[in-house]
Design brief:
The protein is an alpha+beta fold. Helices cover 51% and strands 19% of the residues. It has seven helices and seven strands, in the order H-H-E-H-H-E-E-H-E-E-H-H-E-E. The chain has a five-stranded mixed sheet. Helix 1 (2-41) packs antiparallel against helix 2 (49-73), helix 2 runs parallel beside helix 7 (190-200) and helix 5 (121-138) runs antiparallel to helix 7 (190-200). The two termini are 17 Å apart. Bound molecules: adenosine-5'-diphosphate and magnesium ion. The site of adenosine-5'-diphosphate has 21 residues, from helix 5 and helix 7.
């Protein structure tokens, strides 16, 4: 029991250090970014515009990696409320629509009435964004992705089904490992964040994949308790 307490407090310390480091890294980055933007507006730097743009992009990329990384380490289950999963999904419809259309793809939402669950609104939203973006990225133009909710026995299931090329078996065990990506400009943090969020909701993630595409199932327990 005592060992367990120690482990928790050192995890806590790691979390605090991560937050501290992120602060110490982000502030200087913000300064550098600001000066780069100022230089870009000065005469004489115009011919180097592209270099400046790349530098700013790279800073923004590091910044988003820090954000994603921190949200993975957070183990708090705060701000859970009894919410309707379908409402969260409907609220996201305009965002999903824009993401899909800009890639010449579409997203179909098929919901069943499901019981309310203890959810953190922002986290579930982030989980779904990471999942459907992966799905969209896996598909060819003209294809459609399906998001479903339904009840199954004692579970509420959120399923994200794409018609992409599937996930190769040798990659399956690496999914969710920080920085694992097969994409040229991927961060490899999306699924790690999803797994962390699912764990905080007592939910499990199952994956079905094949030549016809991939389905991620996020399985929430009905009547989940966090005491
Ligand atoms: P990223 O999207 O930045 O690569 P993720 O953690 O979201 O990072 O995903 C890690 C890897 O898992 C992806 O690079 C891809 O190889 C694989 N993957 C995730 N979702 C899917 C999917 N729906 N279809 C095919 N491959 C996927
Ligand atoms: Mg991703």
């Amino acid at each position: 029991y005592e060992k367990e307490l120690k482990r928790l407090s050192s995890l806590d310390l790691i979390g605090q250090m991560a937050a501290g480091i992120s602060h110490e890294v982000r502030n200087p980055m913000t300064t550098v970014r600001g000066f780069l933007q100022l230089l870009l507006m000065e005469n004489g730097y115009e011919k180097h515009r592209h270099y400046f743009e790349v530098m700013i992009e790279e800073l923004d990329r590091v910044n988003s990696i820090i954000t994603e990384f921190l949200s993975m380490g957070n183990t708090k289950t705060s701000d859970l409320q009894m919410l309707d999963l379908n409402t969260i999904i409907f609220d996201m419809a305009p965002l999903m629509e824009i993401d899909a259309v800009t890639q010449n793809k579409s997203i179909e939402v098929v919901t069943e009435d499901v019981p309310k669950l203890l959810l953190n609104h922002n986290e579930v939203r982030q989980l779904l964004i990471n999942m459907y973006r992966n799905g969209l990225e896996a598909m060819d133009e003209g294809e459609s992705l399906t998001i479903r909710t339904y009840t199954e026995a004692d579970d509420v299931v959120l399923a994200v089904q794409d018609r992409g090329k599937g996930i190769r078996p040798e990659i399956m065990e690496k999914l969710g490992t920080p920085f694992f990506t097969t994409k040229d400009n991927g961060t490899g943090l999306g699924l790690g964040v999803c797994y962390a969020i699912a764990a905080r909701h007592n939910a499990e993630i199952e994956i079905e994949t094949g030549a016809e595409g991939t389905t991620f199932y996020i399985i929430f327990k009905i009547g989940q308790r966090f005491d």
